[in-house]
Amino acid sequence: MSTFLGIPGIRRRSDAATGGDAPDEPFGPVPHPDEPLRWGDAFPAAAKQTLRDDQLRANLGHATRTIRGKRAAVVGEVPDWEALRDAGSAVKEQVMADLPDLLARLEENVTARGGVVHWARDAAEANRIVTEIARAKQADEVVKVKSMATQEIGLNEHLADEGIAAIETDLAELIVQLADDMPSHILVPAIHRNRSEIRDIFRRRMGDAPEDLSDVPRELAMAARAHLRRKFLSAKVAVSGANFGVADTGTLAVVESEGNGRMCLTMPETLVTVMGIEKLVPTYDDLEVFLQLLPRSSTGERMNPYTSLWTGVTPGDGPQEFHLVLLDNGRTDVLADEVGRSALHCIRCSACLNVCPVYERVGGHAYGSVYPGPIGAILTPQLTASSGGLSGSDDVNSSLPYASTLCGACYDVCPVKIDIPSILVDLRAREVDADRSRSAVDPWRAAMKAASWVMSDGGRFGVAGRAATLGHALGGSDGVVSYAPPPASAWTRSRDLPAPPKQTFRQWMAEHEKDGGER
């Protein structure tokens, strides 16, 4: 695949496997996948690999601690924060209930103001629409605002296959693109990289990077700025996502911190916005709630440095052609689910990732999806349900609902109060139900059946309790079993096991009654 103005081609998994024509090896283990919502190993195997990367864990720990601290500080300044969360949740509930009418109203208002609305049932349709618009403008490259929706559909990869370069202009997304890597965080895609790694990536992959470039953050940012400036000035077509779409006015909103979004949204002749159908708010006034919730929850800022709002086309000002692609890609199926549909309330703030003890230790790549962390653990399996998700343990996404301790920290920080732990439990139950008809012997299922048989009878349960006390000798001086023989070794390989007591409660009670209660 050719290289466009310093942006490396895409190294797919098949290239690595077959030794095909591909650019330099990527700065990392994750080549671009064919399926952005389902790639790599299942979570347990992938997490086992990433846990061995000490540098990754150090990078993640430092970054998430910093973001958590900033968020806590600015949230603590808002006396009605819980009321804002309630308001955000209520608006999202209303949107889900009225979504068909709101979408029709949005289309009517965008069209009335000079825009063109396209409906995309899936990733293939969305990619085809964007490609046809770029070709009609004879563009061999497009500039992009950071967008989860376009990552979800694999737009960059599709455009590259069609001979069109998609240039990421967000600094973190540019780092990931130049490294031929995959993002590992919703808000900070390059969170798994430290600044010395970023310097090395720029030196090797950014054709116009200074030879003496250091790892000082300002120098790195200035190098990226100089690299991207000519892209902004020459691009005919820009592609963006949307944080919100206002049904009553046809207004779209993008919030960001670097100014690259403002450049993409105002300078090119043609703007294409790909927006998930759930990103609506009913009225302009509803933006007030979310423009307070989103920056505090995501970047730990009181407000986003750049908030760009546009409504259709304004003659002589900004893009003179505007296309809005409304993306379904499984969302209608999620909307029909009474329990899981609240995953569509997500405003992509990533607060749940920053507090999740699982994410902090394994990173985003272990989730095998462009949506990592707690929200990814409930959203990805539902979006892929029609193509194999939640179909039992044969699907890699079926393990994602188990990527959680159910500690509830994600719910506590979610600005729209998505009850992620409850949805995780529900999805786990569905995965178990999907596996019930399998004829193959499953050791875990057999163990659960055995436990059910023992616990359903008081006598059997008492015998099992007395047998368990034999394990007391395995405990060390700290009362913890660090190693146990099989099959218990499957547990102690990755976690400690409290040593059983010397006697069960029933044994203690029997002795207590025998002594007449004097003890």
UniProtKB/TrEMBL annotation:
Signal peptide range in chain numbering: none
Residue span(s) of domain LUD: 104-326
Record domain Lactate utilization protein B C-terminal: where: 445-513
Region of interest called Disordered, as start-end residue ranges on this chain: 1-40
Keywords: 4Fe-4S, Electron transport, Iron, Iron-sulfur, Metal-binding, Repeat, Transport
4Fe-4S ferredoxin-type domain residues: 343-418
Top-level taxonomic group: Bacteria
Protein name: LutB/LldF family L-lactate oxidation iron-sulfur protein
